[in-house]
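Re-run requested by the PI after the first attempt was lost when the workstation crashed. Everything re-entered from the original request form. Ligand of interest: T4K.
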Amino acid sequence: MTKKQLSDLALFGAPPAFEQMLHVGRPNVGDTEAILGRFREILERRWLTNDGPCVQELEREVARYVGVKHCIAVNNGTIGLELAIRALGVRGEVIVPAFTFVATAHAVRWLGHTPIFADVGAATHSLDVADVESLIGPATTAIIGVHLWGIPCDVEGLQQLARRRGLKLLFDSAHAFGCSRAGTMVGGFGDAEVFSFHATKFFNTFEGGAITTNDSALAAECRNMRNFGFAGYDNVTSMGTNAKMTEVCAAMGLESMRSIDSFVQTNRENHQRYTRRLSEVKGLQVLAYPAHERCNFQYVVVSVGPEAGLTRDELVKVLHSENVLARRYFAPGVHRMPVYRAEREPRPLRVTDQLVETVLCLPTGTAVTGSEIDGIGGVLQLAIEHAPAVREALRTSSA
Ligand code: T4K
């Protein structure tokens, strides 16, 4: 698997470095027997969904783990955002980062409101508080910060700004389960936070998510909305939808909870190994997680600088040819996606526009081994050492 010379690259006719595809987002799975045991119990109990015992247990465990009063489990993170936005009474314009997964903005737009795209900081990849402030206008009612990659936003800066300008503050914490900011776990910041427990997240419930908050009235509202607005049999007290998590998903979550420390440990070791290996490669920089905080290390985010001699997109093509499905998360910036640019000409966002061209994500999690990480590092090194020839081969192969 070690590739030593140019002709060892798949681009030049050699077999791919890996027989099996290596994916970003390959799910972590806890103890299979224990998971199946829980599924059997669910089937025997014949309580499959609608606020069942596994959902309630998962909610208690998540609330305890992140240190909040309330957790409302939902069937995915996107609908969690929609419930929280609606329950907070958000209207008009909502400031969101452009450098995020499209769901952050879609949740706002799906409800008929207008996402206004702010830039992010170059070091943190999350909302630039000064840019957010410059975008606040008479129609603004809320800010949604995204703890991208699990690196928490400038929570204090956003909280102060939201308080000073009378805005609601929601966090899209899809990536940040198990992370802390200044020693406090993500989950209780702002008015509410929303996690995703999608299969591609290091902690998963197949599909799923959770709204967490210390606001009891808000929690009750979200809980009602999750189940069509029912507050008891035959009593519909608010507008609602179906955002319920199933028992099978919650059972998966309970077993993911049992394995969470080992998932984090694997992610940490992978992240360290990539950082060490890629420090030897010209032009590549692995984004560091904050020291002295709890981190889930679930993304290996690499910036490709000009010294690499190949662009990010060229390196992604090289990796794909070797069966490494590296991802261009999150390109293009949401502000430049056709669905949003059709509504409003995108404002240039200096940092976002640069990050979407230069950042790539590499496979990690329990499905990747140390020697595969070394192999991925070796492919990147070889390609970069022979950048002109690789560029030429890519040009002719796409012609
Ligand atoms: N906010 C943020 C910041 C988010 O990142 C997300 C979701 C949300 C909100 C919304 O949360 P959810 O509503 O999803 O709970 C994936 C996920 O579908 C999405 O949940 C996630 N962010 C996003 C970052 O990644 P895609 O379009 O990249 O998915 P896909 O199908 O290409 O899968 C990614 C890779 O994972 C593939 O290479 C294959 C691998 N994979 C995937 C699944 C589902 C597996 O190996 N096994 C699997 O079961 O969006």
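Saved to the shared folder this time. The CA atoms of residues 267 and 297 lie 5 Å apart.
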